[in-house]
Structures are given as C-alpha cells and as structure tokens.
Write a structure and sequence with these properties.
The complex is a heterodimer of chains A (about 260) and B (about 325). With about 260 residues, chain A is mainly α. Chain A has ten helices and no strands. Chain B is α/β, with parallel strands linked by helices and about 325 residues long. Classes of the chains: A mainly alpha (about 260), B alpha/beta (about 325).
Chain lengths: ~260, ~325
C-alpha cells in the first residue's frame, strides 16, 4: 500500500512538474504531429491501405518512446543539475521506487503523443480509427506505457552513476523505434533484428495494441510485455543497488 | 551516555582523472582523520574555511558519500552499513539556492518530501502547515519556488528537512547568502530546534552565529580538526592577545605580507567592507604595535584605527593561520 501510494504521488508530482515546463509541453505537443504527418505521407504512398493506421499507431509510439527516453534519463540529469538528486538518494525509500514514478510520469506524458497522433490523422487526413477490440486497446495502452516506463528505468540507472549518460540515450532513440517495430513490422526487417525487438517490452506492448486494432490474440503479447517489464525491474533493482553505491563512492551524485 | 553522533578517524579521498589519451589520476584528501562526538540535545558547530572538509564530513554522515576509511555512527547506527535506517532518522539542510523543485510551489515540494519520508497521509497537511508557520512562509506556500528570494528558499529547505520530525538535524551553512534580517530569523529557528530536544550539527562561516548558537565547536582546516571546545574555550586561545583594527583603502597584498612578518604580530585577517579593507592584527597582550604598524602602512590611505578584545572570530583566524 505504501509503495503504491509512493508511486502514485511521485507520478502525479512528476507529471505536474513536466507540464509546468513550457519547452517540454511545446515539444510534446508539436513533435507527435510532425511524426504523424511524415508517417502518413510515407505509408499512404504504399499499396496497402491498412498500413496507414499502422503508421498512425507507430507514430504515436515513436513520440512516446522519445519522451520516455529523454525524460527518463534526462530526469536524473535534471535532478542532479538542480541539486535534488542527492535529496532523493538520501530519502528513506529504495531509490528505485523513487525513480520509477519519474520514468512512468514521462511515459504517461507520452500518452498524449498517441492520442494526438490518432486525433490528428482523423481530423486532418480523415483516417478512421475503429479498433476491432476497443476494450483490449484501452488495456493495451497502459500496459505499453508500463513497459516503456520499465525500460526507461533501466536506462535511468546509468544516469545515476554517469554524469554524461545522455550520450547513451541520444544513441537509443532511433534503434528502438526500429527494433520495436513501430515504424515497420518486424517481419520486414532482417531476422537478427527481431531478436532484439522481442527482448524489448514495448515491442510486445505495441503488438498488443496493433492486434487490438486489427484483430488477433491481445492477451499473449500483453502478458509478455508485463513479464518483460518485471524482468526489467529485476535488472534495474540490481543495477541501481550497484550504481547508487558506486555513485556514493565516486561522489557523482552532485555536480560539484 | 552514548553520543548521538560519533565520528572516529573519518577520512575521504576524492579521485579524479584528467586527459583523454594519457589519463592521469589525481587524489584529493578532503577529510583526513576527523573524530568528534555530539551528545543528545547538543548544537555542535563545525567551522572552517572553504574547502576545509565541512560539507564532505556532513555528506558522509547523511549517507551521501561513503568514507574512504574510519567510522561514523548516528544514533548508534553505522552510516555505511545501516544507511537505510540512518536516513529515516535524520534531517539535513544544505545552504544555497539549489535542491528545490523550482517550477512547483513550496506546498508541492513539501508534500512530495512528506510522502518520501513516510509522514502519514492524514498528518501531512497539518505537519506542512506547522512547518510553514515555523519558518515564516505561511501565506506564500502556493507560489512557485522560482519566484522565491534566497532567504525564503533557505526557510523552505529547513521546513523540508524537518518534515518527519527527525531527532538529528544536519545544517550545512543554512544562512549563507541570506540578508541580515532573514539570517537572524533563521538563527532563531535553529535555536528552537535544540529547545525541542533535537541534536544539531551546524556548519557556518559566521563566527558570531556559531558563538551565539553552538554549545561546542570544532574548527576544521585542510581536512583536520585543529581545535574543539565551547565558544569560551576557543576564545581563551586568544585571551592573551590583543587585536588592532585598521581601516585601509586600496592596501597592496605585499604590504599585508610585510605587516604579517612584523615582530610581535601573530596573525592578520582582512575583511572587505565596501571600499575599505579592515585589517584585524593580532599580537600579544600588552605589546603596543599600533604606531609601528601605521608606520609600515606609509603610502596607504588609513581610516579608523581601534584596539579591542579578541573575539571567537580572532580565535578562528589564529587557529586556521596556525594550521
């Protein structure tokens, strides 16, 4: 109960903080619409009309991943810069439980990307959005966000130890778009890329969303997304324990 | 009685490296074998110049840094092995502008930390209101922190550090950069902490602050404690000295060095006061050096000259100069 409350209060706090940033809101509002427009024109040039709605979902996911990636790792850098990282580390709860709502909050803001993308494509391009399983779609979206938040958490651990870990997050934006199949289906990519894709929780989350829109078994990919998220938690827990101690040894929690 | 804070031969070395191809490792010994104890309900001051090791010592005690060697216990708990338990029982406040969520209100900041520190939800509002009242921020709690003055931020820091009513509080230069009236209010708040039974470790640059607040003081310089005792004990170090204050304008550094070498002079500190530089020249009591010193200032504009009894600040200067 205490943990659930801690995560919820942290999530609300994080969303509130993010939405007070004019720049963050601007990029969160504008970028998804650019992605939506680009992917619509790219895919509508093809011969299969159903790929257009696939692209709409994918464009939304690209926005979610971008905001998760930069806001998760960036959250740690930002906390270090404003001098609050030390306060969070020195707080009594396990540091992972303090950080998780921050990454989850970033992924939740990313939910806007998806909503805005679907709305944009419907209003501007007249693209209908009629999921085959609307109920499962509503469940698949938070599952996907959870998976992204968990992946963001693993990335965030490196920022605790390394002051310049943003080089890592910059590098991960485009490969994860590809590996999770949000731009093109994984079946179209070389075989080895699918192995990477299947190890990423958001791939399964996206698959669950895709099947809820086009038809197919939604529960299996949703379960895989949650199971992989649990594995990420285990990895993040392990890494955070090591990195937090090393950061206290190397004195990298503050800028000075 | 078991001390609330017990530090034994604490050491901390920072390692940094420079260069890209040819990496060169540099080691800086920030704290070099510090030992002290703080009894329950005591307000203990740690004084020292910049870079003396005050903040590093506090960061080890609040579990943010792992000591290179030595031990430290807070309420009988080891700060390395029992870090989690120590964190629940201590509060800390860092001086300066940073360490707050600028875009959010003071109330939002306090609410979040109340949750982190396990303040029961039904008590959070009351506790936050109590603390806002204690630090004088009531009525301003809904404003964004980015619009706060430095004094208001410091008061908010103190409120944050006290949310879970910790028995031990660490204050690292809490009045730094705060205007005189604000600093006086903050000192009154700090004094009230020990009145309510808390044990406090305070670091400060301001001697009068340490003199008026602390039961005991340790002077730290270059990572080593050079003196420890009550403010009276420390003042007694310079009881056999007299101080001449000489107001000068545009004095050259080499002139100060020449004065420092003058026979009978034990130490000199320079205080900048707007256009003037006030020299505090210590010498043995009974030794009349004023004329000789003024003679050595030939060519430098001199204002007011006065002799006075030594203060805690003079003791501090003597200790730091001697180290």
């Amino acid at each position: 109960m205490r943990v659930a409350r801690l995560v919820w209060v942290g999530l609300v706090f994080r969303v509130k903080e993010l939405t007070r940033s004019g720049l963050f809101v601007f990029t969160s509002v504008i970028e998804p619409l650019i992605f939506a427009t680009l992917t619509y024109y790219l895919f509508s040039a093809g011969s299969r009309p159903e790929t257009v709605i696939y692209s709409a979902l994918g464009a939304g996911m690209m926005g979610i991943w971008t905001s998760t990636l930069f806001a998760s790792g960036g959250a740690i850098s930002w906390q270090r810069w404003q001098g609050t990282l030390e306060l969070l580390v020195a707080a009594p709860p396990a540091f992972l439980l303090v950080i998780f709502p921050l990454t989850l909050g970033s992924a939740t803001i990313g939910l806007y990307s998806l909503t805005a993308t679907l709305a944009w494509e419907r209003v501007v391009f007249g693209l209908p959005f009629d999921p085959v399983h609307p109920f499962q779609f509503v469940l698949a979206v938070p599952t996907m966000i959870f998976g992204l938040g968990a992946l963001g958490l693993v990335i965030a651990t490196s920022f605790v130890l390394y002051r310049n870990a943003n080089a890592l997050s910059n590098m991960l934006e485009f490969p994860v778009w590809l590996a999770t199949g949000v731009i093109v289906p994984l079946s179209l990519l070389p075989g080895w890329t699918s192995v990477i894709g299947w190890m990423l929780a958001p791939t399964w989350g996206f698959e669950a969303m895709r099947r809820s829109v086009f038809g197919g078994d939604v529960w299996a990919p949703m379960g895989m997304c949650l199971a992989l998220s649990a594995v990420y938690f285990g990895i993040a827990w392990y890494l955070m324990g090591i990195f937090e101690r090393r950061a206290r040894e190397r004195a990298t929690l503050s800028l000075a | 009685m078991t001390p609330v804070v017990e530090v034994r031969d604490l050491r901390r070395t920072y390692r940094t490296s420079t260069g890209i191809v040819k990496r060169r490792s540099i080691e800086i010994e920030a704290v070099r074998g510090v030992s002290f104890e703080i009894a329950e309900g005591e307000l203990f001051g740690l004084l020292g110049p910049n870079g003396a090791g005050k903040t590093t010592t506090i960061k080890m005690l609040i579990t943010l840094l792992i000591p290179t060697s030595g031990t430290a216990h807070v309420l009988g708990l080891d700060v390395v092995k029992d870090a989690h338990e120590v964190r629940k029982r201590i509060g800390y406040v860092f001086g300066g502008d940073r360490g707050l969520y600028e875009r959010l209100s003071a109330y939002d900041n306090l609410r979040y930390f109340a949750e982190l520190y396990g303040v029961p939800p039904r008590n959070q509002r009351r506790r936050i209101e109590e603390l806002l009242d204690l630090v004088g921020l009531e009525g301003r709690e809904k404003e964004r922190v980015e619009g706060y003055s430095r004094g208001m931020r410091q008061r908010l820091h103190i409120a944050r550090g006290l949310l879970h009513d910790p028995p031990v509080v660490f204050l690292d230069e809490p009045t730094i950069g705060v205007d005189p009236v604000g600093a006086r209010d903050l000192r009154a708040t700090i004094a009230s902490l020990t009145e309510s039974g808390k044990t406090v470790l305070l670091t400060t640059h301001y001697m009068f602050e340490a003199d008026s607040l602390c039961n005991r003081i340790a002077v730290i310089n270059k990572g080593v404690i050079v003196a420890e005792g009550t403010p009276s004990d420390l003042k007694s170090i310079v009881a056999d000295k007299t101080v001449v204050e000489i107001e000068t304008f545009g004095i050259a550094p080499e002139t100060i060095e020449r004065l420092r070498q003058a026979p009978g002079v034990t130490s000199i500190s320079v205080e900048e006061r707007e256009q003037a530089q006030v020299l505090h020249v210590q010498s043995a009591k009974g030794l009349e050096l004023t004329q000789e010193l003024l003679g050595m200032l030939n060519g430098t504009a001199v204002g007011r000259v006065a002799a006075r009894e030594p203060t805690l600040e003079d003791a501090y200067v003597a200790l730091v100069d001697a180290a």
